[in-house]
Amino acid sequence: MKRYKLRIPTSAGKVETVIDDPENDRHGLLLVAHPHPLHGGSMDNKVVTTLAKTANEAGWVTVRPNFRGVGMSEGSFDAGMGETEDLLTIARFVEKSYPDLPWVLAGFSFGAYVQHRLRQHLDARRLILVAPAVTMYEFDPVPQDTVVIVGEEDELIPPAAIRLWASEHGLTVKGIPGAGHFFHGKLKELKQAFLEACPC
Fold first, then answer.
1. How many CB atoms lie within 10 A of CB 36?
2. What domains can you pick out in the chain, each with its CATH number?
3. CA-CA 20 to 30 A from 123: which of 86, 94, 135, 185?
């Protein structure tokens, strides 16, 4: 596997991005969006890295950007609007190197909000929302093959609210018993749920 550490130009400045490429027998591209940047979220979040590593092992090229103002990314927090633009710019940049590979979009918490917005502008084989912050942001309808992963003991976003939103849109929900918002001690179960959700 080869790792590329880039700073990709966007309208807000350069965005720090890590691309992990299995190099052989590539199946697709996974773009992972991290939790809220003003509350410690980054590309190195353990949920984000678990999803990326799982996809890498399945032969997918993974793309993990730091949102505006995080790490070496320039710019400042824009409540999901500018972050969506940045991810679209990054996706278009990456596509030039992997023109025939399909996208899967995955987002955790605030990152799920950004990815659901990106999906309106970027064709993808699957959208995977992990602990989506549906009580903090107004989510638009998403494709019906979207998969929602929820920790059944989520202390930040009530699981019942996530399930209600998902049921209103006819989405598949994968619940992880005993898991809180950050999936402490439940990364193995998260990995399995992601594998079941991802067309990897």
1. 18
2. 2-197 (3.40.50.1820)
3. 135
